[in-house]
Amino acid sequence: MPIVYSTDPDPEPQPKPTLKPAPAKGQTARIWRDSKRRKGKTVTVVGGLHHDPATFERLCAELKKHCGAGGTVKEGEIEIQGDHREKIAARLQALGYKTKFVGG
Known about the structure:
The chain has helices at 53-67, 85-94, and strands spanning 28-34, 43-47, 71-74, 77-81, 98-101. By secondary structure, the protein is an alpha+beta fold. It has a single domain, classed as Translation Initiation Factor Eif1 (2-Layer Sandwich), CATH 3.30.780.10. The chain has a five-stranded mixed sheet, with helices on one face. The longest helix is centred in the middle third of the chain and has 15 residues, at 53-67.
């Protein structure tokens, strides 16, 4: 029976495509240090990666453990507290990523 009226903007849900996690090989992780909007505290930011949220969370947890620091995933970027650019670059290269330092 067809729907005559509905307040739902999408009355018939479409199946969501499943995203396969992109492989590490071939991706370039851009690494930079940032302290803006953080009351002067320095964080190391890893961006430019294309993964699903679960993969970002796993990678963030691994980097936090490797650096011995806190961190989070925000808007598709991983933020690790402190200046750990060299450690993070070495770990990402060991995982198969290419790395590129951005900024000063």
